[in-house]
């Protein structure tokens, strides 16, 4: 307990003077039984540190210790900045902002490993231990021979490849379980027009997939409609019969090779120029396992497009 010392010779303290700890009597008589020797020694050291003014050497030692401590393990509220007396205004503002944010945040909400902003990823390997059915399937697969495992993996890769191609073209895969087999054909109402339902194969979307430079060539007035219609019809007939077919034709004029590339892109095909000595040839191939021609031939669409452009120019 702290008691005011009763001394008859006690001197008056001026109001402007600071309170002096020497004017108080520190006694722990009432807490003698509860205080251990370590606590008593700690209180003595604390009292001595309060009453004693630190020297310059002690100040430097303390500042050096603080600097080393901050450098090794930066405390929260400094935003990773090593505090020193020669910091600029920007660093001090950064430290003050970080201290303010820490004061407004609960200690249990502070996460230093970044797990609160990085989503947890469940890998295929961890799913084996989560789902017992998947672990059972994996054990059955592991028990098979190497040839059987290779056949299963190749079949899965082929299925994924075909499925990705169908999704790119706008198709939806329907399993047999989703189809109601009991429904008769008389009860089911078919749409009036099956052709043209998929917007991927509409002429506007097919034309927009052509390169911009090639589209500019097709927007010219004097384009060879006969050549475009003949090559487009040949491409449609060839790849409809065999999606894996290839077309090789000699084509010397660079202008016609541009039109051939545009027609191939309109039909979801790839066209390359092959040099055979002095001769130049075009090679048209299909990178997909199937071929579905656009609903409107490119020649008909270009005629309709040119008529619209001409009409708008006259109106202007």
Automatic annotation (TrEMBL):
<dbReference type="InterPro" id="IPR039629">
    <property type="entry name" value="R3HDM4"/>
</dbReference>
<protein>
    <submittedName>
        <fullName>R3H-assoc domain-containing protein</fullName>
    </submittedName>
</protein>
<dbReference type="InterPro" id="IPR025952">
    <property type="entry name" value="R3H-assoc_dom"/>
</dbReference>
<feature type="domain" description="R3H-associated N-terminal">
    <location>
        <begin position="84"/>
        <end position="218"/>
    </location>
</feature>
<dbReference type="Pfam" id="PF13902">
    <property type="entry name" value="R3H-assoc"/>
</dbReference>
